[in-house]
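We modelled each protein-ligand pair independently. The example shown here corresponds to the flavin-adenine dinucleotide entry; the chain sequence is given first, followed by the ligand as SMILES.
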Amino acid sequence: MNKDVLVLGAGISGLATAYWLKKEGFNVKILERNDEPGGAMETINENGFLIDFGPNSGLETTPLIAQLAEEIGIKDQMIYANEAANIRYILKNNQLMPLPTSPQAFLKTNLFSAKAKLRLMAEPFIGKSNDGYYQSMSEFVVRRLGQEFLDYAIDPFVSGVFAGDPSKLSVKSAFPKLYRLEEIYGGLIKGTIKGARERKKNKEKSKQSAKMFSFINGMQTFPKAISNQLSDIEYNTQLKKIEKLSKGFKVYYSKNGEEKSIETEILLSTIPAYVLSSLINFDDNLKSHLNDIYYPPVMVLYLGFDKKDINRELDGFGYLIPSKEKKSYLGAIWSSTIFPNRAEQDKASFTLFIGGARSPHLFESDKDKLIDKVLNEFKQVTSISGDPVIMRHKLWNKAIPQYNIGYIEHERYFEQFEKEHKGFFLSGNYRGGISVGDCVKNSKITFNRIVNNV
Ligand SMILES: Cc1cc2nc3c(=O)[nH]c(=O)nc-3n(C[C@H](O)[C@H](O)[C@H](O)COP(=O)(O)OP(=O)(O)OC[C@H]3O[C@@H](n4cnc5c(N)ncnc54)[C@H](O)[C@@H]3O)c2cc1C
């Protein structure tokens, strides 16, 4: 059996699969465009602040994360979120209101009107819908829970996860577990109760109950430590094209001006869909499916302040902003409240998200003006009087793939493509979920597919 595998991309998806393949006895080589591993997981340290420009945390939805961390020797660096992080705020009428987490708190909250609360109680009596692949998240939520719940809970939640637009995301493709509650149990409330029992049996955790983790030196610790276990990663490579051979594939790339190529019978792509689309010339359908996946731009704005200038308690995860509130940013994570080692004792740090599918147009005009506007809005909402002691930003031009209505057609074609082009495997965050936890789970699935198909 041929055991040489070429992997494209050294993000978490490529690295985790490569690690398991190597452990299984495969010879793995990775080609990566950047000069370091991690992809979206990017951490820097500056002036006593630890800045995560990509994910600030992950949810431990699978035991694979801790197992992997243990095997690669970083389990002792894994940290869990401070309890305060269970409190999440939503902005309504310029006030931060805690999202209720118990039935009692729900009855008392001013976040929802009495009418919306009554409407929620009707949820168990609402019938099932037709195919959720073609139903938007908004349609699903309005039907089951009512408009106000969409506006002040789900809309901000969707922008917190996907930087997405709930009227475009397919409920079944983007939130399969949520949709399953209706499909299998007939409703969200009934399903939450029964689903918890099922998960207990197979030791999986729901996104609501999974613990939030990071690493003492930030999220990039994880991909960096995996990469240390792999001997053959070529950085700073420019992929040119992928050709299909009578047996296997040929990948052309350049490095430092030198033209190179590699032939392989097993090729695993974990690079973003639009990048792979530009490299393939032997399957026009795959090209167009990949190219149709929308990745909106997201700017991450990192701010650090002197604690003495902050005139409110930072007692939560941070807050999300519903579209209806018409602000220039999507929300803010109170980074130094959640995990230790994010800022010095007398400082506090925040990570803000701007743009996404809700407002991609923001980056068409002057970015400095946009940042100024966001900073002013943020200081007002968070009751901060002084100027930031540190301010850094990163614009991800194509940040997160949107599992929009009709996404199932892409997914079906990816399966067909893999059957027709044996040895070519498609992976990465445009398949099976975008969260770090989902990427790790899917990397194991991809590993099994490779082992069982060669
Ligand atoms: C701003 C932001 C915030 C996020 N926040 C969270 C969060 O809080 N929690 C969470 O769970 N998830 C979050 N995510 C999502 C999660 O981080 C990603 O979905 C996940 O890390 C993707 O991993 P991946 O390996 O599939 O893709 P990537 O990390 O994108 O890796 C793909 C790799 O391919 C490389 N590549 C690209 N083009 C080429 C080329 N031409 N040649 C060679 N290599 C190439 C890239 O450099 C990269 O290293 C966030 C994502 C972003 C962008």
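Residues 8-14, 31-34, 39-41, 54-58, 237, 239, 270-272, 275, 298, 300, 396, 399-400, 428-429, 434-437, 439 surround flavin-adenine dinucleotide (CB under 6 Å).
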